[in-house]
Amino acid sequence: MTIEKLKIYFAHNLEGLYPSEEIESFFFLLVEKHLNFSKVDTVLKKQYEVSERITQQFTEALNRLQHFEPIQYVLGKTEFYGLPFKVTPATLIPRPETEELVDWIIVNCNKNHRALLDIGTGSGCIAIALAKNLPAVKVSAMDISEEALKVASENAIYNKVTVNFSKKDILGTSTLPQKYDVIISNPPYVRNSEKEMMQKNVLDFEPASALFVEDDNPLLFYSKIAKLAKNYLNPNGFLFFEINEYLSKEVIQLLERESFSEIELKQDFFGKDRMIKCTLGE
Ligand SMILES: C[S@@+](CC[C@H](N)C(=O)[O-])C[C@H]1O[C@@H](n2cnc3c(N)ncnc32)[C@H](O)[C@@H]1O
């Protein structure tokens, strides 16, 4: 089959399930993955004969897209902060608002900040983007999921940075291996009751353990990490959190109770309360 015919077959099978521009964008991404053709190549080489094996791979991708599996999982990769990341169903797909958090951290880091810790690293996106952009800093990262840590380690190699990954259940510990200058976390923060507002492809495919918390204790990660940070943050160090847009007031109150100061709330690109920075002072 030619690329031209494959494109018609692909679009026909996804018609009505996605907007046509999205279907076209999926097609170009899959051609790039399986044939290593750029968008321009794809348009210019429309009479190129696609092998049986590649056609089969497109049929498999179609089947997954018809079930609304996120394109990032179908491709097995995504981009975060301009860097390539492998993603699997064991890892959350990194979100653009988390790129904004990384930006904020980079702006706030100075030469005195030498040791960083990312708690709940998932694909390793925050830790790796920071290691890449702050080469003088020693970056460590933790997650409860062994499978996620495996992907994160591959991503560190892929991006040519060193990150010290370790497996830890942050809720079940009262110690950290050392003190840090910056502690960051984008922990699970979506309340179970918010599930009905979420898209089906997130609910059906992304790891629930990375997203959801019980409605009666939605800040358990924030509370635990703030308590740990009180003992493991160096003087003048920073604690950064990504937060649930509906719970900013509650997170601020929690941090005040734990004696954090200079608490700063920041909105994301969509104007939603999305991240917090604070310190313990000197
Ligand atoms: C919202 S995801 C964030 C992933 C990644 N940092 C990002 O920004 O895309 C939360 C992460 O916390 C991890 N996690 C959940 N419970 C945990 C626990 N008790 N201890 C450590 N990590 C945990 C999940 O496996 C998941 O990777």
Automatic annotation (TrEMBL):
Domain Methyltransferase small stretches: 112-196
EC number(s) on file: 2.1.1.297
Domain Release factor glutamine methyltransferase N-terminal intervals: 20-76
Binding site for S-adenosyl-L-methionine: G120, T121, G122, S123, G124, D143, N186
CDD domains, A to Z: AdoMet_MTases
Residues engaged in binding substrate: N186, P187, P188, Y189
Domain of life: Bacteria
Swiss-Prot/TrEMBL keywords: Methyltransferase, S-adenosyl-L-methionine, Transferase
Statement: the UniProt record of this protein carries the keyword S-adenosyl-L-methionine: yes
Top-rank EC class of the record's enzyme: transferase
Any GO BP: methylation
Reactions it catalyzes: L-glutaminyl-[peptide chain release factor] + S-adenosyl-L-methionine = N(5)-methyl-L-glutaminyl-[peptide chain release factor] + S-adenosyl-L-homocysteine + H(+)
Pfam families hit by this protein: MTS, PrmC_N
Ranges annotated as spanning the membrane: none
GO MF, one annotated term: nucleic acid binding
Record-linked InterPro entries: DNA_methylase_N6_adenine_CS (IPR002052), HemK-like (IPR004556), N5-glutamine_MTase (IPR050320), PrmC_N (IPR040758), RF_methyltr_PrmC (IPR019874), Small_mtfrase_dom (IPR007848)
HAMAP family, per database record: RF_methyltr_PrmC
Similarity section: Belongs to the protein N5-glutamine methyltransferase family. PrmC subfamily.
Function: Methylates the class 1 translation termination release factors RF1/PrfA and RF2/PrfB on the glutamine residue of the universally conserved GGQ motif.
Stated name of the protein: Release factor glutamine methyltransferase
Gene: prmC
